[in-house]
Amino acid sequence: MSNITATMVKDLRDKTGAGMMDCKSALAETNGDMEQAIDWLRKKGLSKAAKKAGRVAAEGLIGVAAGKGTGALVEVNAETDFVARNDQFKDFVKSAAQLGLEADGDVEKLLAKNMGGATVDATLKELVAKIGENMSVRRATALAVNPGVVANYVHNAAGPELGKIGVLVALKSTADEGKLMALGKQIAMHVAAANPLALTAAHLSKDVVERERAVQADIARQSGKPENVIEKMMEGRMRKFYEESVLMNQVFVIDGETTIAKVIEKASKDLGAPVEIEAFVRYQVGEGIEKVTSDFADEVKAMAGN
After folding, report:
1. From 3.30.70.890, 2.40.50.100, 3.30.479.20, 3.40.50.2300, which CATH number describes the 59-169+279-284 domain?
2. What is the C-alpha separation between 189 and 185, in angstroms, rounded?
3. What is the mean pLDDT of residues 195-204?
4. Which of 1, 23, 134, 203 could be 198's S-S partner, Cβ–Cβ 3.0 to 4.6 Å?
5. Which CATH class is domain 1-55+293-306?
6. pLDDT tens across 269-286, in order?
């Protein structure tokens, strides 16, 4: 059996919101496999985070930039939120996002771009030396559409075009750009809140769908009902999964009743031209990263029963 450490237990607890001893049991049952442990907790009804990829732990900011039919997101990480509030750090992120447009969202190209007489990479290293804390340009992306607009939105704003969550939404249409941008911003706000996994069911990863189906089948079988009944139950469970996970199937958070597909359909009529969501991107600071902490004394004591 794999050695189950306090760190592993804490990581699983952070990812799922389940109790510490439940997390320890899940890891023990799955030989320390984190993904299997998450599924084990879900099947037991103990996980509070069905879709959560990982607790947001790393600090930093998301910078957004907009151009004619284009938009870019750049995530720059720092060790502490204190640095993320630093004006020099903010200026760097904002400038990096603008350069992200020119680099087409390619991190390597971005790091080689000129920023104030030096490369972005060299400028960041100077900032690290000056502030005394490790930082990195973690990722970048860009969207472009023609004809149409790329709307953006930042949540938990730390300044203009800076925040903890950044979203781009590309709307393809020949409709009035001002009206398209207003619609795109509302959809971007929805994406920030609802965190869809994909644009349509067809865009979902096959592995994600199969994993969800396996988990839901296991939960359904716990009812003890015959397989033909379970198959019907599965149709409803997977339909709910798509409604929660797919952008076009989600209920618009702004009105609480219309699906995004219907919102786009209505916009096409109101604006006098077909409107299509071509793509969206959502960044949240530190998603999928766990901050290393050195003191797990409380977890160790609790696990030992002290």
Report:
1. 3.30.479.20
2. 6
3. 93
4. 203
5. mainly alpha
6. 999 999 999 999 999 998
